[in-house]
Structure formats: C-alpha cells, structure tokens
C-alpha cells in the first residue's frame, strides 16, 4: 500500500496528521496516489469506511482527494458553492459521523472563492443578488460580518473566518458531532486551501478534551 494507508489513521489526531502529510506531498509534487487502482475499486464494492468527512466548495480548482493525496474510499466529500451549510449538508455530516464512523470532520474554505467574493460584495454594498446566487450569499454573509466586526479586512481573512465560523456552526448544529468531540472520538477542523502554493492552512481545531 502507500505511506498514507500504512499509517492506518484511526484517531482524530492520526487522521489530521495523515491529511496534512498528504497535502504536503501534493504541494511538493511528491504524491503517492494511494488507493486509485482497480483492486481498491473492487474492495469498495461491499461498502465504505472513510476516515474523514470534508465539506468544501464546488470550485473546480479544489479537488479534495487530490490535494490531500487520498484515494477511493478514504474521504467522504460534501461539496457545494462556498461550502454552504443547509439541512442536506448537515445530514450528510451526521451520516458520516454516526453511520460511517469518520474520526475527523474538516470544513475547507479556499483562496479566491467566488461564492465568498459574492457575499463580500453583497454585504459591503447592502444589495443581495436577485438570482439563485442569493442562496449562498445569504449563507456566507454571517462569516463576512464576523470577519469585518472590527473594521475592513482582506478577502483572505474573510476566507479564514468563514472556515472557523462554519466549523463552529457545524458543532452547534449537529448533536452527533458535538457528542463525538466531547467523547474524543471525533474532531472538528477548519482550514483554508491556498491556490497559490497548494497548501492547506489550519484556522480552527477542536479535538475535545
């Protein structure tokens, strides 16, 4: 197998370490491309056992499995524009925690996010879009307001705040996640992916006790 799968991450700390190691390989062009062959596909026909759940933006520049050098069955990925949280996303996270037994939930924002940019424009102009982009602008607006509470900040800082605010919101919204954190079986992390250098920067961690 590969470096990542040989580690067999199970605890929240081990899982986050494995994801960060995979991202470092990705950022430095030393990927191992684990779990991407026909044998792995065949092994997964009877079920899945991912070690992490990742909520991320749908942006085509943010391919979650690739940027963590993961493969089939390693990561349960939930994506939409801006990584907005609604009942279907929350239900997916709950399923990942309760039914799939993931040890880590990661909310991942990213550099130059178009959805966050639209939310910044909407908040700063006090004019919400009239089309369907209004849906994610409304969802992201609290992160923009929180980031700007003490004055103007750049988009990068709002992207970091969005990761932190949304990670905290997920804990508050999903009882199974809160319970797992309290018991030390699950952790919640917020992070931001940098397009420029391919690295994921941590902005929030909750590993419980």
From TrEMBL:
<feature type="binding site">
    <location>
        <position position="110"/>
    </location>
    <ligand>
        <name>Zn(2+)</name>
    </ligand>
</feature>
<dbReference type="InterPro" id="IPR036874">
    <property type="entry name" value="Carbonic_anhydrase_sf"/>
</dbReference>
<dbReference type="Pfam" id="PF00484">
    <property type="entry name" value="Pro_CA"/>
</dbReference>
<protein>
    <submittedName>
        <fullName>Beta-type carbonic anhydrase-like protein</fullName>
        <ecNumber>4.2.1.1</ecNumber>
    </submittedName>
</protein>
<dbReference type="GO" id="GO:0008270">
    <property type="term" value="F:zinc ion binding"/>
</dbReference>
<feature type="binding site">
    <location>
        <position position="113"/>
    </location>
    <ligand>
        <name>Zn(2+)</name>
    </ligand>
</feature>
<dbReference type="GO" id="GO:0004089">
    <property type="term" value="F:carbonate dehydratase activity"/>
</dbReference>
<keyword id="KW-0479">Metal-binding</keyword>
<comment type="function">
    <text>Catalyzes the reversible hydration of carbon dioxide to form bicarbonate.</text>
</comment>
<feature type="binding site">
    <location>
        <position position="59"/>
    </location>
    <ligand>
        <name>Zn(2+)</name>
    </ligand>
</feature>
<comment type="similarity">
    <text>Belongs to the beta-class carbonic anhydrase family.</text>
</comment>
<dbReference type="InterPro" id="IPR001765">
    <property type="entry name" value="Carbonic_anhydrase"/>
</dbReference>
<keyword id="KW-0456">Lyase</keyword>
<feature type="binding site">
    <location>
        <position position="57"/>
    </location>
    <ligand>
        <name>Zn(2+)</name>
    </ligand>
</feature>
<keyword id="KW-0862">Zinc</keyword>
